[in-house]
Amino acid sequence: MPPPHQPMYYVQDVPVRYKHLSNTLRVLCLFPAVWGVYNHLAEANSVDNRQARTLDPTKSSALDNYVGILWCLLAGLWTYWLTNNLIRRWFIHYEPWPAMIRLLTLGTIFWFSVMYFVSYFGANEPIWPWMVICAILAVAQTIQILHFRARGLANTVSKKPRRDGKSLIYRTVLIPGGIITFITMVMLLHQNNMRPSSAEAIATGGATGVMPTSDARLIIQAAQIQVLIIILSSWTPKALQRRQEIRDTTLKLAPPNSSKFAYTYKFVLGEAPSNHAKNSLGPKIRQEMQKYDDLLLLPVSDAVKDEDYKSFKALEWSNKFKFDFLCKTEDDVFVRWDTVAQDLIELGPSQSYWRGFAFWYVSGFCD
Questions:
Q1: 3-state class (DSSP) for residue 367
Q2: Does the pLDDT value for residue 265 go beyond 60?
Q3: pTM beyond cutoff 0.70
Q4: In this predicted model, what pLDDT tens digit does every residue of 162-195 receive, in sequence order?
Q5: What one-character-per-residue DSSP string does 167-206 give?
Q6: Contact residues for 143 (Cβ-Cβ < 8 A; gap 6+)
Q7: CA-CA distance, 305 to 349, in Å (whole number)?
C-alpha cells in the first residue's frame, strides 16, 4: 500500500504509476489528425482554386483542403476524448498490460482506418474521408458515453460529479459536429458561387464559349445572305461520333462562303452531366474544340429532360448576333445543306420567316 500522503490516483482517475504511459497513449492517438493537417496544409499551398465545371479532371482547391483541416481537427478532438475516457476506465477495470494492449490495438485499427479512407477517396477528395472518420468517431463517442454512464465507474475514487449522459453527448458530439458542418456548408457554398461556368472558363481559356460581342461579322463572313446554324448535341460518346460524321458529310454539302452566301455553325452542349462524363469525355471535347473551334458550351443542364431549356438558351445566345437566317437542328438529323442554302439564296432576306420539319425513320436511311 502507498503511504497515506501519496495519492493512488491522479486527477484523471488513472493510477499514478501509469501516468506517463497514459499520456503517451493520448499523444499517439493524435498522430492521424496531425498527419492529415500537415498533408492538407501542404496540398493547399501547392494548388490553385479549381474550376468545378471545367473540362479538366477534378482537383481539390486550397479551400477544399482548409475545410479538410477543420474535419481533421474535429477528428483529433473526438479521438482524444474517446481515448481519454477509455484510458480512465480500462486502466481501472483491467490489469495494466491488458489495458495497454487494448488501447494500442484500438489505436492501430484507427490508424489503418484513416489510411484506408484517405486512399479510398483519393487525394482529390480532402473532405469526404475525414467526414466519414468523424461520423464513425461520433458514433463511438456516443456509444461509450451511454454505455459507461449506464454502468457507472466501479472502484474509482474520483469525487467529481458525473454529468448527465444526454447533456454530455450534446456538448461533446452535437455542438462541435454542428459547428464544423455549418462552417463547411458556408465555405463550400461560397466557393461554388465563385466558380465560373464551363462556358466562362472555356472562353477565358481561349476556346469557343459564350461570345460577348454582338458583331455578326466576327463569326459570319460578310455576304448578302448570312446564316447561323445551331446544332444541339450532348456529352455522350455517341454524340461525339455524330459531330464528327456531320463535319465529314452533311456540312460539306453546304456551298463555300462567298459574297452571296456565308454561314457558320455551332454544336451546342450544356454542362457536363456528371463527374464521370467530365473526366472521361472532357479531354476529348477539349481537343475537339481546339481542332475545330465549333463547339458552344452553355451554363445549362445537358440532361435530356432539359433539352428545351438548352434550346432556349442557345436561341438567347444567338440573339446577340446579326444574321439573316437562323437554322436550328440536332446532331441526329440529316440535313441537305446544299438544298437549304439554295432555297435561302433564292428567298433572299425576309422578315418573320419560319420553315422547317423533319422526317423520322426514313426508309432507306434506317435499314
A1: coil
A2: yes
A3: no
A4: 556 788 888 889 999 999 999 999 988 887 766 5
A5: HHHIIIIIHHHHHHHHHHHHHHHHHHHHSPPHHHHHHHTT
A6: none
A7: 35
Tell which residue, 197, 35, 27, 195, has the closest CA to residue 126.
35
Q: How far apart are alpha carbons 9 and 14 in whole angstroms? A: 5
182: phi then psi, degrees, rounded to nearest 5: -65, -45
DSSP string spanning 18-79? GHHHHHHHHHHTTHHHHHHHHHHHHHHTT-PPP-TTSSSPP---HHHHHHHHHHHHHHHHHH
243: its cell numbers? 459531330
Q: What is the distance between the alpha carbons of residues 30 and 32, in angstroms, rounded to a whole number?
A: 6
Do 29 and 79 form a contact (C-beta atoms < 8 A)? yes
Reported as type and span, the H/E element at residue 227 is strand 225-232
Phi, psi of 198 (to 5 degrees): -60, -45
Position 276 confidence tier, pLDDT thresholds 50, 70, 90: confident
The conformation of residue 5, written as its DSSP 8-state character, comes to T
User: Is the CB of residue 48 less than 8 Å from the CB of residue 60?
Assistant: no
Q: Which of 86-90, 150-154, 355-359 has the highest mean pLDDT?
A: 86-90
Per-residue pLDDT band at 237 (split at 50, 70, 90): very high
Across the beta sheet with 295-297, the strand order is 295-297, 261-269, 225-232, 325-330
pLDDT in tens, 132-151: 999 999 998 888 888 766 55
Residue 288 DSSP one-character state: H
Nearest one of 177, 149, 164, 150 to 78, comparing CA atoms: 177
What does the pLDDT look like over 208-233, one tens digit per residue?
343 433 333 345 677 788 899 999 99
- Mean pLDDT across the chain: 77
Alpha-carbon distance 87 to 35, whole Å?
23
Is residue 209 within 8 Å of 297, Cβ to Cβ? yes
How far is residue 34's CA from residue 256's CA, in Å, rounded to a whole number?
66
